[in-house]
Design goal:
The structure holds two protein chains of two kinds. Chain A is 45% helix and 25% strand. Chain A is α+β, with helices and mostly antiparallel strands. In chain A, the strands form three sheets. Chain A has a five-stranded mixed sheet. The two termini of chain B are 31 Å apart. The chains are: A alpha+beta, B mainly alpha.
């Protein structure tokens, strides 16, 4: 399986899913040198958006990363009711969340996100300051490892802005 | 990312003084100079180029893993 996160974002956009890229890929898009094995997304939890998301995930042949190896497909009902969805897709690993950090959902994250152009796509991405806050909140070993790089990246961006 | 080797120059290159060395100090974040220069390389790219680079690296790792699995 090849990671094709750009294609996953393209499919989601084509289905008009409302989502924000968070986590490692959001940091990569803003200049982080750290690589990651999945794309993390927070999506708007509404019946209409969950229906669109389920259709996009069907196109991506998504199934839950089940340790027992069962093939369990996400559907609109599960997307509405369950908080975290760790999915294998034809474009690589896609992790979907209803909230991130200190229980921040899509509407609350909108003001802390910005649109980035990726080829012909316009994708909404969590701002670096907010990514840092979510990682400080999560405080897992991998977050603690990443934080010095992300803080340095933020310092560099601010330095370039001020030049 | 490959780095161009220094180009030979007929002009003598001035050696950086102690002030330049101070500018490399990143001790506050605990990062080495190599990490900071990597960040600057990434900032010189577009978001599309950054994503492609990350995907390319990940796919190389995945290929090596698959080749050595089992």
């Amino acid at each position: 399986m090849q990671a094709r996160f750009d294609e996953a974002l393209r499919v989601l956009t084509r289905h008009e899913v409302e989502f924000i890229v968070v986590g490692g890929i959001a940091a990569v898009l803003q200049g982080s040198p750290l690589t990651t094995e999945d794309v993390d997304l927070v999506y708007r939890v509404s019946d209409e958006n969950c229906r669109r998301l389920a259709e996009a995930l069907d196109e991506l042949d998504a199934s839950y990363a089940d340790p027992a190896g069962r093939i369990i497909r996400p559907d609109a009902k599960r997307l509405t009711s369950t908080r975290v969805h760790l999915l294998n897709t034809t474009c690589g690993r896609v992790d979907l969340m209803r909230t991130v950090g200190d229980d921040l959902a899509y509407p609350g994250l909108l003001g802390r996100s910005k649109e980035l152009e990726i080829e012909e796509l316009t994708v909404r991405v969590l701002e670096l300051e907010a990514i840092i806050e979510t990682k400080e909140h999560a405080d897992r070993p991998k977050d603690r490892y990443q934080l010095p790089f992300l803080r340095q990246l933020l310092a560099e961006i601010r330095r370039l802005r001020d030049e | 990312m490959p780095v161009d080797p220094p180009r030979p120059s007929a002009e003598p290159v001035a050696e950086a003084g102690p002030d330049a060395a101070d500018a490399l100090d990143t001790s506050e974040s605990g990062l080495e100079w190599g990490d900071v220069s990597l960040i600057r390389q990434k900032l010189a790219l577009t978001p599309t180029e950054r994503l492609r680079a990350a995907q390319g690296l990940l796919n190389t790792v995945l290929r090596i893993r698959a080749r050595n699995a089992g």
